[in-house]
Amino acid sequence: MDEPGEHKLILKKNGTSISYELRWYKDWASWNLISEDNFETILSGTATMPK
C-alpha cells in the first residue's frame, strides 16, 4: 500500500471535562499492520463540557 498511515482521535469523558488525544500511526493500526502501542501523540489536552 502507498497510503501514509492513519490518525486516531481518542476522547474520554472525565466528569464535566473531556480529554482528547490525536495519535499518528506510520501504518494501519486498525488493520493490524502496526502495533496499537506504536504511535506518536500529535495533540492532547482537556476541554470543559458546557452545562
What features would you describe in this structure?
The protein has strands spanning 6-14, 17-25, 40-48. With 51 residues, the protein is mainly β. It contains no helices and three strands. It is elongated.
Pattern of helices and strands: EEE
User: Low-confidence parts lasting 5 or more residues at pLDDT below 50?
Assistant: none
Biggest sheet layout = 3 strands, antiparallel
Beta-strand percentage range: over 45%
Count of extended strands: 3
Structural class: mainly beta
Mean pLDDT: 90
Which descriptors apply to this entry?
three-stranded antiparallel beta sheet; elongated; 51 residues; mainly beta; 0% helix; 53% strand
Fold topology:
Layout: E1 6-14, E2 17-25, E3 40-48
Antiparallel strand pairs: 1-2, 2-3
Short description:
The protein has 51 residues and is mostly beta strands. It has strands at residues 6-14, 17-25, 40-48.
